[in-house]
Task: structure prediction
Amino acid sequence: MNVRTDIIKPPKQDIFKSGKFRSIVVQIIVMVLVVGSIGWIVNNAATNMKANGISHGFAFLWETSFFDIGYLPFIEHTASHTYFNAFVVGLLNTVLVAVLGIFLATIIGFLIGIGRLSDNWLVARFCGFYVEVLRNIPLLLQLFFWYHAVLRILPRAKNSLNIGDSFYLNLKGLFIPKPIPEVGFNYVLLIGIFSIISIIFLFFWAKKRQALTGQQFPVFYASLAIFIIPILIVSFLNNTPMYLEDPVLKGFNFKGGIRLIPELVALLLALSLYTASFIAENVRSGILAINKGQIEAANAVGLQRVPILRLIIIPQAMRVIIPPLTSQYLNLTKNSSLAVAIAYPDLVHVFAGTALMQTGQAVEILAITMSVYLTLSITISLLMNWYNSAMKLKDS
Amino acid sequence: MKISNVLKLFASVLMLSFGTSAIADTLSDTKDRGHVRCGVSQGLPGFSNPDENGNWVGIDVDVCRAVAAAIFGKGGDDKVEYFPVSAKERFTKLTAGEYDILSRNTTWTLSRDAKIGLTFNGVNFYDGQGFMVPKALGVTSALELDGASVCVNTGTTTELNLADFFRANGMSYEPVVFEKADEVLAAYDSGRCDVHTTDKSGLAAQRTKLAQPDEHMVLGETISKEPLGPVTREGDEPWSDIVFWTLNALITWDELGLEAGDALKTIVGDTSQTPEVKRILGVEGDQGGHLGLDKDWAYWALFEVGHYGDMYERHVGANTPLALARAGSPNAGWKNGGLIYAPPIR
Result:
């Protein structure tokens, strides 16, 4: 037979037509372009700044800041501290508002979301109203509403609203008594820690017992008793080694006690109420995503409403809720930078505001600020992803 | 609005990053454009504030108008584009080239001059920081302010002087820092703060905006020196020279005690005037040429805007709402015991 071998022979491998080769080449080109343009931008910025006599670099972080910050719940900052210290203060204030905001928004969001599915007409309608109103008004406006409309009608410091000479509310904030430990408080602390460890053991023991015998143990009430009774006894034996320091009006302001400044309160209210309206919808979608049969089956075995919610619905709904919940947490954290609109000294206000102005090093400061938000967001994402994988359906 | 501020700031930084570093020639750019670009405040009566017709007026605005008149000649004072900016973003936008003169009650300090890339071009108002308090507080001296909440504008020397003053006197205070002057005032008026602090001229201007101005007083102490003047970018000396000498031409005319405006028409033709007068008006010599301008640069600046004393009395003087008498203040001419003094134009 006369076979034409040149047809059967596989075509010669042309490296330029290989898909893998092309994709590598394209990726290298894109990579070089991206890195190159970033390098060009950085170099250009540095050249321009040098030509214009603008100082650059990060050495400014160790210079004295010469300015004060109004709200310091964690660490000290005076005019003789460095810019880096101011940066840390701003960062801590941002983290404070983000953590408190996430906490409040989650609780309110879950309550509203579950409430919207309630059989009670009034509760369901109220929750629906809440969601529609709050998520449809821009956050900045809500912030202004709380700060300029609600909190500004409070009385001045001299005419504070006074509850039992311990709680004061005025234009400068809410003042509450501060617990101050005295001699012997360490014993109370020690017994408290011991109680908590016992409670953890009790919890595991009860779980194991239920798995073995099916019998339930009233863990909640038992834990409460284990926690409270020893502390009360030890406190009594040590003549209650703690006293409450009441805030007292001295001169212009209250001294002593714990103070919540109105800027923080307004920011927290706005952020958590706004974000809660979105979380509520996530929760509702998560719950509605559960097959009706699950609830019917739970009803059939005679479970009550609350255990059904706690044991059957929420654990399954969480799988649907967590991913969008993560985005809401990220939104809340980033939205906290709206603090700059009112006088709450967060990172943007203190560092990308005052410090930027005083040093003039806009490029460096904005770069640092952006990387901080990036880091915060990635941290939240990682934590939530880890939680998500812990909660997801485990197919074996 | 706040977000857009941050965005604008960011855009300015980007401009700094992308813009080519060509040698700056602001004068020819300005001539090509046909108008001067001028950064002003967001509304500070007497300094830079829109009037009822929306035109910018004030002692800072007049500096830009004079520069424009010196460049463009007759009617040149209208050839100005104004950019209202907050204290925080004023320098970034200047260095990024959004405008070419910053005439916005800006204090001349070492770090601004040497570190941020700015050039200060003389002083058009000598100010000093003070405190305003409600009369009801019963405070008579700034030294009684221990523990007070103080409302202050961010990104200002005010914020730093405040820290210095309280530290130096061993007193504590709570700074409440806002981005806009209006927010500072609103917070003070509502009672969030006990004290409002800024430059004394600013306090005089802000007090007129309060709900009940008579219930507030400015304390006697002046805690800082605030020489305010027009600012330009570092690295374009010819442009900075124009701004500096235009301002000083206005001051010189005030020192000479001559009238500006329409009176110049007769002065310029009067051969009996001194050589100095002839030199300034461009009748003799070519001082304008050294600045890259026409011979009659100062003539038009003085014709359109008036001299320094006119500027002062028109916007901040005793007969204005600010009521800051010039006599006896640092803003009087040096011959009258003040600090206003111009180097010789020759």
Notes: Chain A has a mean pLDDT of 88. Chain A has two domains: 83-163+261-391, 178-245. Chain A touches chain B through 53 residues (CB under 8 Å).
